[in-house]
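Proteins fold reproducibly. Look at a concrete instance:
___
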Amino acid sequence: MDTYELLKSIFRDRVTKASSDLCCYSADGSQVRGRPEFVVLPKTTEEVSQVLAYANTHLIPVTARGAGTGLAGGSVPLSGGIVLDMTQMNQILEIDIDNIQVVVEPGVVQDKLNEALKPYGFFFPPNPGSSASCTVGGQIANNASGMRCVKYGTTKNYVLDLEVVLADGTVIHTGSKCLKSSAGYDLSRLFVGSEGTLGIITKATLKLAPLPKSRKLIMVSFKTPELAGQSVSKIFAAGVIPSACEILDRTSIQVLTKLEPNVILPKDGDVILFEVDGSKQAVDESAEMLAAACKDLASSVLVTGDAAQMKEIWDARSLLGAAVSKMDPTKTRIYVGEDLGVPIQKLPEMLAKVYEIADEVGLLPMIYGHIGDGTVHVGQFIDVLEEEEWNKLNTAADRLHLAAIELGGTVSSEHGIGAARGMYLQRQCGPAFDVMKSIKKSLDPNGILNPKKLGM
């Protein structure tokens, strides 16, 4: 029996090798490309196990894929083989409010999960910009986060247990329903962020958080991005932990203003959007303390608790990555050198470095991101038909990655390494990279799981 016949016997009409279908699975949101030979849509853990057992025996590469919203080529099948489209495993299996947790399949969409949790007064806090379409399995595989990770943390902080199918088809559980455990190695943390290179997640037990009762947004403008960076340390020193802390540089403001001329944003300078949440009294106090902490550095401060006003501002922020074409319709946003992270104290230096590199290379950068935890997203846009523009872009991206490492930071704060940043991981991690390769070899000795990712 050949591979296609075997897959047909398991999946029936949920397998394809049609060129038109395979093309849809050859890319994500990055510039990385790779075409699979087959795509299957499993509905059960047993089906995933059968595929992996067969693929491992016959040395066929297997790449898991959720919604394909990644920005680093993590779900792109660089070595061909089989793509496991996990979006059919999309059930919320259990909402266990008594134990403050939920059990889901990997294809559940983030926003749909939170819609289901809202009547209970709880939510799953990680909120990437693609939350309307990204899957929980993809979030776990990349340790995704988003605008409210300053207070609530990243995906890894909410994973209690994973059901994982290993390369040979063996099914394991990495944790339990306990809210904490000191029993052995933390296997859940091992698989979070592993980008499908160690096993395929087929079920997840996730910790929940109560929905906050009140929220306020504090919008602060600054004359320079360096002053904006300094303000982050000041508000933490003042004892305020915002739920969100987002920087929008002056180019970002121009983009959003062109997209929506009436949007409520300062028209010059660099802006940080702070949000505080919790009880009404705590929110009022935190907003007052935060505004006071920023006062000496700021050009203007706006505090609002108006729900419609806050929604308008946050909606504008969430569109930023896709809105850069408004600056110049002949240019395209390219996702390279765009997910840097540095220690908070190094933020002013990193922001200055971005502008220095862009100026020397001859590109206009756009800076935005979750500055409250040191994340700096750099938006670069070029005319994709001009080879020289590509050369400038790649030069800038390389220098940006190396600058982040030199400042004690990371080349990926939340989007993952995938194929796009694999060449930097060893330099960032040093001898720890060899430990990662040893773990990969132990769990996937034949190298069938998402090969050519993470620089391996």
Summary: The radius of gyration is 22 Å. The chain has a mean pLDDT of 95.
